[in-house]
Amino acid sequence: MSMTIFFAVLFYLAAAVFTLGLIYKIYDFARTPAPLSIPTTPAPTTTPGVIWRMFREVVFFESLFKGNLWTWLFGWMFHMGLFLVLIRHLRYFVAEAPVWLLFIQPFGKYASFMMMGGLIGLWGRRFFVERIRYISTPSDHLWLALLLVIGVTGMGMTFWMHVDVVAVKAFFLGLMVFEINALPAHMGLFLHLLGVAVLMLLFPFSKLLHAPGVFFSPTRNMADNPREQRHLAPWAANFEKS
Amino acid sequence: MAAPEFELPKFREYPTVPALREGAMAHSKPYVANEKIQEAIGFQAKLDDDWRVTHDKVIAKFGELLGKYRSLKVFMDACVHCGSCTDKCHYFIGSQDPKNMPVARQELMRSIYRRYFTWPGKLFPQLVGARDLTKEILDEWYSYFWQCSECRRCSVFCPYGIDTAEVTMAARHILDSVGYGQKYSNEIIGKVFKIGNNLGLPGPALEDTLAGLEEDVKEDTGVAVRYPIDEPGAEVLLVTPSADFFAEPHIESLIGYGKVFHAAGISWTLSSHASEAGNFGLFNGSYETMRKVALRIREAALELGVKRIVVGECGHAWRVAYAFWNTLNGVGAGGKDPFSIELQKQLDPRYPQPSHICEVTWDLIQQGRLKFDKEANDHRIITFHDSCNVARASRMGGYAGGQFDIPRNIIKAVANKFVEMDEDTVREKTFCCGGGGGVLTDELLELRVKGAFPRMEALKRVVDAHGVNFMATICAICKAQFTKVLPYYGFNMRLVGGVHQLVSTAIRLGQEQ
Ligand code: HEM
Ligand code: HEM
Ligand code: SF4
Ligand code: SF4
How far is the CA of B392 from the centre of ligand 1 (A)? Predict the structure, then answer.
């Protein structure tokens, strides 16, 4: 029971920090002006074009593909795996799983292999490629370690030491209506959830800000139309008043 | 040529990523601007004697810029150290210094950002690579942020489009504001403020030069091609880098622009007030400097009453003109405020404002208003070097990528022999000449020679395979830089020239139109 209380408190805290931190960061990105038109060209000249470019960046990692095939391969495996795994996890947070969510379950299950394969590949690069070793900080390693711990414990539960997922679901659905239901006592689950909570707590202060950041990157999200449209930041407009 | 005091990179049979040589370029440092130069352009004269004062000013300025530039803010946060950019910078490839890897260059600043502006960096500096700002780090900024040509090659390959050029500009802006400016760039900006161009050529000297040019062209072709300056009522105001007035091979392109206008029957003029297309405000990252330089073009345009503004062959100038002028000085379209309307109602809306000289020439070629003797260029086997600012920071024509096609189309229209260099070294992946972004100064020669290496390698391959003897480009800095560094790699310095130099050779002047 004490573990249940601990995790309940931890997840309220993590959810609050994660949400508020991220909202603040996004607000901070959004309010900072881009005073000059700086898309990396050739760039789309229209808004639909920009949306399509952004879509290619976010879904296919297009620029990374041009830059380095190995990193692209591992990075894309990791993120697509992660994406499917997270979708599959939605079942813990909705009372009645819709058909598509049921349909996706087996994919999410096996996507975990893709995710872990990608993570191991990415981590390997940090040891074996001289340039990447040079730019890696301890926190880069720790992030990969944390994600591996979350992944290993998660897969442990899925494929080996099963856990009462119905109870897990009851616990999280309960949290949402401020009710505390017992969390199954399971070492794998505890580790898994601890890892997830740490990830959520640190997300808004770390390099994981690349996820919202990519949408705000002026070199990717600006349309190439400076001859047709005047871009003027409020602070820059002041020069014209004097 | 005397043997260089540094080791030249060696041509590789199969370009692979070079091994790291830590500190290989740590000694590279441009001359620091003196107090007079700094004050003339409105920056602090010199570093404060008390380091703590400088320290606080750096952090304060950094904070200010983070609030003004979304690029800087997002780029400081978003990098995941994926390494995609690590082998993309020509300075890294040529020097092997790991701090010339774009992400490592950014990290010089990001380590400070993390320490002073994020709480993980405040609490666990070692963990996230955060560092206290020291004088040594500021010196390191001065060294390595002047080893970036702001060419944006790294940003093409970054999954978040992180553009090290933006980081470099911010760092240089901070350095300037605490009295740690670079002599070469700031001296030039001072000349533009005072006289109107980078070379400091006063109006009468320009008039003399242009009169001489008219005589030369008359002698050469028998046709009285005009090179007018300060002529009110002309249709076109041509703004070109001042190197075009004096330097070789630049002047050949200036001759070419004049011939194009002559053959098409377009009235045009230069301006002594705005006798410079270049804008070194881009290099030191100060919006105000850049605006002040750009305003001269607005003033000249209003005064002369021109209908079109055309920019000559210059890479960073075209970036500033194409992407920033509408913002900075109102040359463009779509403005809704009195400042921009005043100028935009004068400009002819049928043409893109500003236009690149290549857009003008290509347009005339398509309309059939220019005729060429292509054979006149038959002694040349030509390749084209995309200049970084044109390729990755601007556009020509009505569609994305026109900046690659239009210069090539012109070359193919005026000459018979054209070959491309390796596809990883042209178009959006082009390598900088090694002299852009404010490093075109003699004390940085080692950097410039090493930075030219990837381009020289690609050039070597087409020289060996196809006998290329002319590398065309549309940038004054590329032309000056290559003229200087080509001999280091065993090439003739005359191998580089302008696109309008080729136009000039082949164009038919006279009656036919
Ligand atoms: C919009 C969503 C996202 C996009 C477009 C995106 C994109 C990328 C890209 C392109 C990379 C570089 C390549 C690589 O190393 O994999 C990367 C790295 C990384 N991403 Fe994401 N990401 C997103 C969301 C996330 C989320 C939600 C997480 C965490 C749970 C995450 C964790 C990471 C980590 C840890 C790395 C660094 C990998 C390494 O150390 O090499 N990303 N991301
Ligand atoms: C509060 C949030 C989370 C809860 C309650 C949770 C819970 C669980 C549970 C109960 C399992 C076992 C599933 C089964 O036995 O079928 C599991 C599996 C897994 N979890 Fe989580 N998890 C959470 C967040 C995450 C996050 C953020 C990640 C990734 C970064 C992750 C990665 C995985 C993986 C890879 C598996 C194994 C594959 C699978 O069954 O989908 N989990 N998780
Ligand atoms: S902008 Fe160009 S010079 Fe600067 S780091 Fe990037 S690739 Fe190198
Ligand atoms: S490519 Fe972008 S995200 Fe990757 S290391 Fe370079 S700057 Fe950072």
Answer: 25
pLDDT in tens, B109-156: 999 999 999 999 999 999 999 999 999 999 999 999 999 999 999 999
Query: Which residues are CB-neighbours of B500 under 8 A, at least 6 positions away?
Result: B252, B253, B254, B255, B256, B257, B260, B313, B357, B361
Burial (0-12, 13-18, 19+ Cβ within 10 Å), A128? exposed
Which residue among A137, A150, A210, A214 has the greatest number of ligand 1 atoms within 8 angstroms of its CB, and so is best to mutate? A210
Q: What is the interface pTM, i.e. ipTM, of the complex?
A: 0.95
Instruction: Assess whether pLDDT exceeds 60 at residue B512.
Output: no
| Atom 2, ligand 3: residue with shortest CA distance | B151
- Give the sheet arrangement for strand B355-356, strand by strand: B268-269, B236-239, B308-311, B355-356
What is the mean pLDDT of the segment spanning B173-200?
94
Predicted confidence band of residue B1 (pLDDT cuts 50, 70, 90): very low
Rounded CA separation A171/A6 (Å): 12
Q: Cβ A240–B339 below 8 Å, yes or no?
A: yes
What distance in angstroms lies between residue B457's CA and the mean position of ligand 4's atoms? 26
Residue A23, C-beta contacts closer than 8 angstroms, at least 6 positions apart: none
Rounded to an integer, the average pLDDT of B223-229 is 96
Which DSSP string do the residues of A132-145 spell out, in sequence order? HHHH--HHHHHHHH
Q: What single-letter amino acid sits at B91?
A: Y
Question: C-alpha angle with apex B241: B239 to B244, nearest 5 degrees?
Answer: 105
Question: Which three-class secondary structure state does DSSP give residue B309?
Answer: strand
Tell me, yes or no, if A202 comes closer than 8 A to chain B by beta carbon: yes
Q: Rounded to an integer, what distance in angstroms lies between the CA atom of residue B63 and that of residue B113?
A: 9
Domains and CATH numbers, chain A: 2-29+39-222 (1.20.950.20)
Strand order in the sheet with B382-384: B382-384, B470-473, B496-498
Residue B15 sits at φ, ψ, to 5 deg, of -60, 115
Q: For residues B393 and B342, what is the distance between their CA atoms, to the nearest angstrom?
A: 27
Q: Residue B203 and residue B193: Cα distance in Å, rounded?
A: 14
Residue B308's H or E segment, with its range, is: strand B308-311
Residue pairs spanning A and B at CB distance below 8 A: 224
Mean pLDDT, residues A55-78 taken together: 98
Q: Catalogue all structural domains in chain B, each as residue range(s) with its CATH number.
A: 35-184 (1.10.1060), 195-419+468-506 (no CATH)
Tens digits of per-residue pLDDT, B396-454?
Answer: 999 999 999 999 999 999 999 999 999 999 999 999 999 999 999 999 999 999 999 99
pLDDT one-digit tens code per residue, A119-145: 999 999 999 999 999 999 999 999 999
* Best residue in A41, A66, A74, A208 for a mutation probing chain B (most B CBs within 10 Å): A41
Short-list A134, A133, A80, CA closest to A107: A80
Nearest to B213 by CA among B269, B251, B243: B251
Look-up: residue for tokens 């330097």?
B247
Interface of B with A in 450-479 (CB under 8 A): none
Beta bridge partners of B418: B382
- Looking from the CA of residue A82, the nearest atom of ligand 2 is 29
In the reported structure, the alpha carbon of residue B465 is separated from the centroid of ligand 1 by a whole-number distance in angstroms of: 43
- The 3-state DSSP composition of chain B as helix, strand, coil percent (nearest 5) reads 55, 5, 40
Candidates A38, A228, A231; nearest CB to B163? A38
